[in-house]
Write a structure and sequence with these properties.
Arc Repressor Mutant, subunit A, 3-stranded mixed β-sheet, alpha/beta, globular, DUF3987, Rossmann fold
Length: about 450
């Protein structure tokens, strides 16, 4: 799990400080990414003795990783008319601004449809996005975040919302049948119980995962059944799923990570933002909604967009970073960074009513992608499937332990190197501290 926390630090050290997502409600804080990595927010991770005693080892000094904290998207990072809607909603709702922002973007991308796109290495990319909103519990106000966004989309296009936003996905065949005869091939799948969709994917022969991956990749989706093959051309399918962390960790199979379904999604960690005993109010959204309506109408037949010269130069500078894939499970989940950033940049350009993708659109997209990376790192920062890691984690739930007590858990049947490895795999969940006045160390859960 060191990969996960290390990635958080890497992402935060990006060279474009103006784009970073700093915690909201901190008006005096710097917008620099490094402002989040103060000495107080770093922890010292346990370094195995074998490495620490080696003068040539990069671990001969204490390692510092960013503490895994709840990812936040600052209100300053919200871009364009969609961002303005969320800025006005944020103070008067318990819903997470990031969850509202991403869901609004998914809805707008669906509303625009297949008439605007960009090309990347021969592949056509439209503004259809997939997003999964994860909360610790059912009280994360995921449903509230969608209700707020749904009301905005209702003002923009009630017939589309009524006819083209559907729920209840159980099979790929059912998905195709649900709209194969519709003249309008835009479809926004809203799954408030995304765990049920993941459960369906576990059934032998179920084609949900295959069809969703086809839907994200291109405009044709098909199931080639022996007697009655079915397909839809020019499909423009978007997805919003809601799930709790325990459900996600229980139901998301490793195969859905390795086969690429997970990396087609933007992952958003949502939490209850504030307590409003009397409920939230209704802000004045007239101006930004009018701007969005004008932008959506003008974008529907915009055709192919390309990056302008300045954006091409910026793209060349950030492309290598986006192409880098961290090792392990998290790397598989974040392995479509280039495509995700460009789809977001396309959408931001369309909402700005531009005929080209500019630097501002790339920067806004990169800022949101970095937030989604931090969210994914937080969401999937679960303990590794190492039985020794599991044993230590379970023991620590009863209270802190000294390192000697940790070693004693295995009754002399585990080598020191194995225990050291287990501790390093748990660094997202534990803190190892020096015992004052002693050379010993104590381990506790965060």
């Amino acid at each position: 799990m060191a990969d996960i926390t290390h990635l958080i630090a890497q992402l935060a050290e990006h060279q474009y400080p103006r784009q970073d997502s700093t915690p909201p409600m901190q008006a005096n804080s710097s917008n620099s990414p490094n402002s989040q990595l103060t000495p107080e927010s770093r922890i010292t991770v346990y370094v195995p003795d074998e490495e620490a005693n080696s003068s040539n080892s990069p671990n001969s000094q204490p390692q510092h990783f960013a503490a895994p904290q709840r990812p936040r998207l600052s209100l300053e990072a919200l871009y364009g008319p969609a961002g303005e809607v969320i800025r006005r909603l944020a103070p008067i709702t318990e819903a997470d601004p990031a969850a509202m922002y991403v869901q609004l973007l998914v809805g707008l991308g669906s509303l625009i449809g297949p008439g605007a796109w960009f090309m990347a290495d021969g592949a056509r990319h439209q503004a259809n996005l997939f997003a999964v909103i994860c909360g610790r519990t059912a009280k994360a106000r995921k449903g509230t975040s969608w209700s707020r966004v749904r009301n905005v989309l209702l003002d923009l296009d009630e017939p589309w919302l009524t006819a083209q936003v559907k729920s209840g996905l159980v099979s790929g065949e059912g998905l195709i049948e649900s709209f194969k005869n519709d003249a309008d091939k835009r479809l926004l799948l809203f799954e408030g119980e995304f765990g049920q969709v993941l459960q369906c994917m576990k059934r032998e022969g179920n084609t949900v995962s295959v069809i969703l991956r086809q839907a994200w990749d291109g405009t044709r989706i098909a199931v080639l059944r022996r007697k009655d093959p079915i397909e839809v051309e020019d499909a423009h399918i978007s997805l919003i799923g809601h799930i709790t962390l325990p459900e996600l960790h229980r139901l998301l199979a490793s195969v859905e990570i390795s086969n690429g379904l997970a990396n087609r999604c933007l992952w958003v960690f949502a939490d209850r933002e504030r307590l409003l005993p009397e409920g939230g109010g209704l802000p004045d959204l007239y101006d930004p909604v009018v701007d969005l309506n004008t932008a959506v109408i003008s974008a529907r037949y915009r055709g192919q967009l390309e990056r302008d010269p300045a954006a091409r130069q910026l793209w060349a500078e950030i492309y290598e970073e986006l192409s880098e894939e961290p090792p392990g499970q998290l790397g598989e989940i974040l392995s479509r960074g280039e495509a995700q950033v460009m789809r977001l940049a396309l959408l931001f350009a369309l909402l700005d009513r531009c005929s080209t993708i500019g630097c501002a659109h790339l920067e806004a997209a990169l800022s949101l992608w970095h937030y989604c990376c931090r969210s994914a790192a937080f969401i999937f920062a679960d303990i590794a499937a190492n039985p020794k890691s599991v044993r230590i984690h379970e023991a620590l739930q009863g209270g802190p332990l000294t390192l000697s007590q940790v070693h004693a858990l295995f009754g002399g049947h585990a080598r020191k190197a194995e225990i050291n490895l287990a501790l390093r795999e748990l660094d997202a969940q534990i803190v190892v501290e020096n015992i004052e006045g002693s050379k010993g160390k104590i381990v506790r859960l965060r």
